[in-house]
Each structure stands twice: as C-alpha cells, then as structure tokens.
Amino acid sequence: MSLDVAPATRGTQRAEMVLRAVAEAEHRRRRRERAGVWLGTAGLGIAILLFWQYGLGHLVNPRYVSDPLSIGLRIGELVADGEITRHIAVTLTEAGIGFLIGAGLGLLSAFALSQTARGYEVFEPFLIGFYSIPKIALAPLFILWFGLGYTPKIIMAALLVYFIVFVNTATGIREVSPGLIQVCRVFGASRRDLLVKVVLPSAAPAMIASIRITCTRAIEGAVLSEFVASTQGLGYLVARASRAFDIETVFAGIVVIAAAVMTANALLRLLETRVTPWQPARIHG
Fold first, then answer.
1. What pLDDT sits at residue 4?
2. Spatial contact of 274 and 92, defined as CB atoms under 8 Å apart
C-alpha cells in the first residue's frame, strides 16, 4: 500500500504547486492591471490640470475661467474660515437622507411588485410618465410646498434615486430564469427560500450597481434644489458666487462637488466588488 500512496501523494503535491503558481500569476497580472489603471488615471489627471492651467485661457476669455492654482488657494481659504465645511455638511446630509429614502423605497416597491403577475406592467406607464418630467421644473414646486429647509432637497434627491433603483431592481428580478424557479419549487423551496436564495442573489448585481450610480444622482438632486432657492449648501455657494461674478469661488464649489461625488462613487464601487464580484450588471438611468 505504501508504494501506491507515495505516487498519489506526490501527484497531489504537484497539483497543489501548479494551482499555487497559477494563482500567483493571476494575482501578479491583476496587480499589473491595477497599476496600469492608476498610472493612466494619474497621467490623464495631470494632463488635464496642465492644460487647464496653461492652455484653457487661450481658448476661453480668462475673465470667465480660473486656473487650478487659484482654485486650490480659494478652497484653502474657504476651509480655513470653515465656510466650505458647513456647506459640504448640509449638502451631504440632504443627499444622504434622500439617497437612503429613495434607495429603500425603490428596493421595497420593486420586490413588492415582483410578487404580482402584472404589477410592474400596470405601474410602468405611470413611472415613465413621471420620470420624463424635467426635475428642474419640480424643484420650485417643492420649495413652494415645503419651504427653504432640508425637506425639498431631500425629496428631490430621493426622487432621482428612486426611479433608477426601482427600474434596475425590477429588471434584475424579472430576468431570473423561470426554469430555475420551477426547479426550486419542485424540490420544495418555499416562497421565502426562492426570494432569499434565488431571486435576491440573481438581482444583486443590478441592485448594487444601481445604488452605486444613484449616489451621484442624490448629490445632483440636492445641489439642483440649492441652486433654485436655498440659504446654505454647495449649490447655494456656487449660485451666490456666480451672481457676484466670483469665478474662483464658483470653480472651487464645482471642484468640491466633483470630489465629493468621486469619493462616494469610489467607496460604493469598492462595496460593489466585495458584494458581487462574480458578474457585471447592465444599469439603466
């Protein structure tokens, strides 16, 4: 028996070595790809900043555009006196609450309508009709109805989030294979088992990806409402500076908004890769 075991053991060890070598090679390849992406992103960013600093003034009237160095100094001044921090806190609070409300309602309504045979088809025409309304037309109404406080900004952010999360979650649920569901039922799966172990994992990529991209929509909705009428927030800061022809503050506010969106998107993308690493999702909106 010992003569038979030894070759089998050596074969197992060789297989393990091959698998480790393949895994290490794949790890190195992915690391090189990530490094290439980071280098490309950094190079493109530097090129844009250099063009902005030294070339944009030749294409656009310098009176109407600021340069990165001046914008950076202005952001430093706003940070030093605490003004920008206050506006950032207001906008992110409005966007964060609206994001949670819109995403939660979108997920709940999508799963609720998926329990009926024709629920989504009945609801879809009204959804498309309401979604087609320009949101800038709704902002003044919300402000008239709910005042200048947080409420209209939260509602606008929630609306921009809700539709995208609802449509993509409902689409992900409807794309679950009916044959798979029938097989699970044959094997005795309950409705709860189907929802938790089949439907939810299948729809998860679309759900997570739509939640990620709607983070930017939430900030967009809050800033949009602040542009229309507000007394605080990043949108108010940019609108006030534009009325005063303070170009550096306008660009400083825009840069801060873009940085907030990019940071939130990066964090949610990291969450997406951790939760659903196995497949990409097609997102509408």
1. 53
2. no
| Per-residue CA distances from 216 to 183, 198, 232, 265, 274 (Å) | 39, 29, 19, 7, 20
CATH architecture classification, 64-275: Orthogonal Bundle (1.10)
Residue 278 binned pLDDT confidence (cut-offs 50, 70, 90): low
Please report the pLDDT score of residue 211 as a whole number: 79
**pLDDT tens digits, one per residue of 35-89:** 888 888 888 888 888 888 887 777 777 777 778 888 888 888 888 888 888 888 8
Q: Do residues 239 and 254 touch, judged by C-beta distance below 8 A? A: no
Task: Spell out the domain ranges in the chain.
Answer: 2-54, 64-275
Q: Please name which of 109, 110, 123, 232 lies closest in space to residue 170, comparing C-alpha atoms.
A: 110
Q: What is the mean pLDDT of residues 10-34?
A: 78
Q: Which of 120, 90, 214, 236 shows the shortest CA–CA distance to 159?
A: 214
Residues of 38-48 as b/e, b for ≥16 C-beta within 10 angstroms?
A: eeeeeeeeeee
Question: pTM value?
Answer: 0.73
Quick one: residue 248, left, alpha or beta (phi over 0 = left, psi -120 to 50 = alpha)?
alpha
The three state secondary structure string of 218-270 is HHHHHHHHHHHCCCCCHHHHHHHHHHCCCHHHHHHHHHHHHHHHHHHHHHHHH
Q: Which two tokens stand for residue 256?
A: 């801060």
Q: Are the CB atoms for 252 and 71 separated by under 8 Å?
A: yes
